[in-house]
Amino acid sequence: FDGFDDDGSGQISAEELRKALRSLGVNVSVKEMNLLMKRFDHNGDQCIDFQEFEDMVKELIPPPEFDASFEKMDLNGDKTLDAEEIRLGLQELGIDMSEEHLKRVMAVADTSGDGTVDYDEFV
After folding, report:
1. 91 and 47 part of one domain
2. How far apart are CA 27 and CA 77, in angstroms?
3. pLDDT digits (tens, 9 = 90+) for 54-88
4. pTM over the 0.85 mark
5. Does residue 24 lie within any of the structural domains?
6. Do β-strands 47-49 and 117-118 pair in parallel, antiparallel, or remain unpaired?
């Protein structure tokens, strides 16, 4: 989520979402973007917050895709992702992240506080 929130507002605008989808190889028309926003912007503020984003991802990305993404990012095969593995995985998707931004992502994703993101934290 943080990787797509370009302005750090805590919300993803329609333009930020469109850019994020493009970086993942998904091109959507203006009409399709409006439909996505209407469907997942539950509070009607014209932005996608973290919970709305989570709902959208869970609905649009099937669990096997999560499995494959996690396994691909887990370079050392230890069933967890450290900050470097996450940085490299996002970089492969065309998302360059500053060290500070990566620290914020890890702080949010690593709910156990052990310095890594396991599969349950990933999804």
Report:
1. no
2. 32
3. 888 777 766 667 788 889 999 999 999 999 999 99
4. no
5. yes
6. unpaired
